[in-house]
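Chain A, query sequence.
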Amino acid sequence: MITNSTVSRSLRGSAALRALVLCGAGASALLAAPALAQETPAAAPDASAAPAPQDDQASAAGDIVVTGTLLRSKITASPVTTLSSENLDQRGISTVQEGVQRLAANNGPALTNSFSANGAFASGASAISLRGLTTNSTLVLFDGMRAAYYPLADDGTRNFVDLNTIPDDIVENVEVLRDGASATYGADAIAGVVNIITKKQVKGITGRAEAGISERGDGSQYRLSLTAGMGDLDKDGYNAYISGFYYRQAQLKNSDRPYPYNSDNYSRISHNGVAGANNVIDGLDADGNYVGFSPVTTGGGSTLFVGAADPTNGSVAGRYQLLNAAAGCQRSSAYNLTAGELADNPHAPTTVCQDDQTMNYGVINPEIQRFGVSGRFTARFGDRGELFASANFLQTDVQSDGLPAAIYANAPAPFYFPRYSTRGNIAYYGNNTILQLPVYVCPRGTTVACTAANGTLNPNNPFAASGQTAALIGRLAPLITHDETRTRAYRGALGVKGYLNDNWQYNVTATAMHVDLRRKSSGYVYIQHLLDVINDGSFNFVDLSKNSQAQWDYLAPTVSNVATSDLVQVDANVSGELAQLPGGPLQLAVGVGYRYEAVDAPSLNSDINGGTQRYFTLNGFAAKGSRSVWSAYGELNAPIIDAVTLSAGARYDRYPNGIDNFSPKVGLVVKPIRQITLRGTYSRGFRIPSFGEANATFPTTGYVTVNSATYPDSYLAQYGCSQATFSSCPTYIRSTSYGATSLSNPNLKPEKSRSFTGGVVFEPVRNVSISAEYYNIRKTNVITTANNAPAILAYYSGQAIPAGYNIVPDVADVNHPGALPRIAFVQSEFINANTLQTSGLDLGINAHFNISDNIRFSTNAEASYIFELKTEFPDGTVERYDGTLGNFNLTAGSGTPKWKGTWTSTLDIGKFQLSGTVNYFDGYDLSAMDQGTGYKDCGLDDGSLPCRVGSYVTVDLTGQVKINDKFTFYATVQNLADRLPPIDTVTYGAHAYNPIQGGEGILGRYMKAGVKFGF
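Chain A, predicted structure.
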């Protein structure tokens, strides 16, 4: 048995060991790695130091232009972190999206590739969530220009740019503005901006080959790239290059990892003598007791059972039995019920099949394949003019397997017709829809009742001779659901810049981007076809191996469609000097812009043709919309004196339907002495309603896993359990989810934001910098569905459902037919209602030194801490999320940890470089106020875990050897201590661990090796 006291001791010991390693690394410089993100001194860095990520304060001597401003300045008021391609290489990070996901400021509802294999709406995509404010409040740019949204919104509502569309090997650096920037870029830049900056020129031929695999021999990945360029901008006046790459990541299954990540049985996990629940289908509890039979539970397993039923309503009076006793249990273990268990469960079969579906079918990481080609031409003209043209194509293929096909199930959330179900009788469809094998079968197309006169006895029905139908439950074990996405991104950009005179510059850019997403799903049963083959007997349910491929294809035809997203943007601005102030030139920039954006995401599973003319399981969400946006903006930078610089900016955006927005921003930099820089900003921003929120043509439904806090004790009493004994509740209650259906609202208003930052950079000596940045962001008119908790509580308490909600009940539990059924769907409309506020602190410590002519050392630590993240509702109630699993629905139960950080160092000795990284991800309380718990009251814990999930610390080590000017070999060991993530059985974004906390760590110790070359 895994006890949590043992786990806690292990975590404490492991954390202590990592702390010791950390201290040793700092003292001896034997663990080293470049910074992923850091603040650096305002003075120019030592040119001989190893390249490291840097803040805007120190990119180079003299003035610079960074993300978030149009003007050149030595010091910026907003904190900007730069992550270079060299940083990623030195850390052993293979893709830009992985590096961005590891940023300390990325928190809360980020979207990772691993979640694509666990039911994400936006399957196959990756997105960042700065400050924990969701993916729709972080703006992602390519070379300062917008990119097209991913065609599928996160949870069907949040537009975002897919980080997988980044062409990794032409990325020069990534600038992350940790501040609001709507005054410069317009909508969505509430929490910050991620600007992907590609290489301006490449000379010669460069490339790499890399391979990686876990210590367990799985989770392999491969990376190949080749880039060729010609011309020198300075000497020849032009440069042109072309680049191509290929990347592949193998699928990783839960069965490849140890307990409990590979099992639905949590009964071996215990804390203070309380064991976890056994969620294996028809499994035994921690005391070895059978928890009770339910057709809904057993019907979710991989084996088919039947029960003699009343043909008029499908009710079963006796026991269920295996449909094919000779074949036995499919991918599961047989358990023979005792006499006492049979007496307590009059409908239970004498033998049940214990099906551990996570062990059999669970997927941790999907299979990912990416390849692409990019090109750029840059030329200079006149004295100081420059133009460029670039084009990119990138394709990402993501695929993963799921569960066996469901036939005893509810249809997905409806819209045009009442929901169909084979689990219960639906009045709209004749009130006899429980899945039954009929007594007689007739040819397809028969329009009259099928009887002995025109049909034959059903060979699939063992009770046909006695005139009874056979109620059928279970899944089709040979038919495994499979989902694929193929994303193709096409992007072109043009730009020209130059000088109008000695003081004034112009810059004109244009970009167009098209993304098409093909979704392809197989193994899902089409409801009407299921009814067809049941009624005509053409499908062999008794011996599934006897069915031809044509029969399988008719029952579960492959479905696919293509969703698209488009963007066209044109932007022009001029900038220059107005006058000379005591501290330097007074600069002004003004510009205008236009963009068109559109999304067309048709439904993959609509019920527009009828409740049975669709598939089980597949979500039906769809959205379609387009809009044109006109903008005008300006920016002023005024160095009042040497020690004080004031900046100001504003932007006006005009949307269709009379929506407009004005976004101002002011900033101040004060440098009282050389060693100290003080800076701060105040800004207002906005987010326009997404196409999914305002223009969904089929509503979005997300599924939320229930927990003990979902139900009041008065409701659980009907099922013989309580919140305190939740692990002993029937599986019908304990192991389920409900659908949260959100209806679009075309009358939504934009979200508005107010944010300010304030920070200090302290440079006590040369090459040493200590920084601290405070941020505070407040969003109003937050677009949301009304809090579902009151409606859920009202339903389960037997009270009237509040206005604005609709509750769709599930079918009743066969063992408790008189009890109030569980909830199937909660429906509500998007509204502007809430206020969301967050505040926190970014910290950084950086230093780099030349120890000798041949030895260099650099080290830094960067961390982000959330003081508070909370939502205030119109009635004045407040939900607080920081340090807990809240916002539970928004984060897929991954929560909002308070701390996230990285400590890194690099040691260079001649041609050898040793790099190491310590990654820290804070723990959290097992509570979530949006799930009805109090703040940090451990309300989601069933008692089998400590109230607080432990923090997670991993160590990575990378070594590089420069063989000569043409070849560099490198090797990386990630998660050096092979430390798997802390156990969390509450989150539902991954199985038994937090996918944001342990997304890479679940691989365990992971090795990579490769070679870089250049000619």
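The first strand starts at residue 2 and ends at 3. The radius of gyration is 30 Å.
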